[in-house]
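Why does residue order matter? Because the sequence determines the fold. Keep that principle in mind as you read this record.
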Amino acid sequence: MTVYKNSTELMQLSGIPIYMNDLVDACLLSKLNLFLQGDTGSGKTQLAADTMSYFPDKSVFILGRNDMDVRDIFQQVNLNALRTGKSSAEIKELTDKVGYHLIVVDELTNCVPAVRAQLFNLFDGYIEINGERYDIGAGYSLGIATGNLGQKFTESSNDLGRALKDRMHVIVDTDYFKPTPSDTLEILAENTNPRVEFSNGNDRSEEIVESSKELRSRRVPLNKFLIANYFVHGLDYCEGPGGEAKSKTRMKDAWPNQITNHGRGSDEALIFPSSMRAAKSITILSQALDDIAKRKGAETVDPFESMTQAYKFVSANSGGLNEASVQANYYGDRYSAIDELIITTRAQFDREAEKIASGLEMVNSGKLDERVLSLFDKRWGFMRDILQGLLNKSKTHTGDLQENENRNT
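Structure:
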């Protein structure tokens, strides 16, 4: 049974509305950690509790506090039992403990950095006790965390906070996507109990785990990888005061202060490029969003559409935005900043479409054409290396096939 209700659209894919519950399902399919950030009473804990009902015997709820030691959850049994096999009861208790598929940490922002550090491994899918690693969830585990909007999830000078935030692959501001008035009316009419409701619900753990495995085994279209590379390398490009090409990552703390382009829609002083971890999260979340949209009736989904929407929910609150630019140009609205960035990114890809097609045609022909490679410069310079790499891989693959054919004859 699900209690959380919210009919506010987060996005549309091929005309299909995607809601908060759909995004949570996409995170479950793609096995991505989710951070629900919002003010008290915004429904984030109830949404996490509803998700736990999918895994009635395979989920655990942890209330964040400063004296917390997450290892206590797993240290209630003899960890040597699995190796020594002293008793079947001990072994069952241990495998039950490390078999959790879903870890929910409520009020994560209440925890001091020393406690957050313990969550690193937990959100990465394993627990470390006495120097030994124990995998959680038998290959499938993810975390959902919640925190109040008024509390800093990460301090700008705190590397520990940034590292933990990077592990929360998808971050949603639940205040921005509040339930509609009709949702509120229905919620109040059904139940005036202000407490979070937990229920066992229907066990969907096996269905979700198998669907996730199938999704991850599915081939990712090449154009999604090109879009992901743009987020990593194309968004790294900027111009210095004299117009010379610069790398945001190489500029380090000098970015964005030395960038004069603060116009609406421009990325140069607005956002830092995606990390490799974020690029992977964007790609697999895009695959899951495609799947959700098709389940709801979409015949096909534009890869650019699902990739940029995945980018929005991975990046808007990840700490990569220049807050001064967001305040000056978007009245503090991070999602609006990303929406305008998506529009300009679409324009960028539309302008480069013929060049990209020519490059891929060059790869398919198996011949290097410097004239084609020279078409890509400035923020699109990364495409030269990609095309060269694809061409080399194509030649190697062809050579391997020829070698196998010769060996067989």
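The mean pLDDT is 85.
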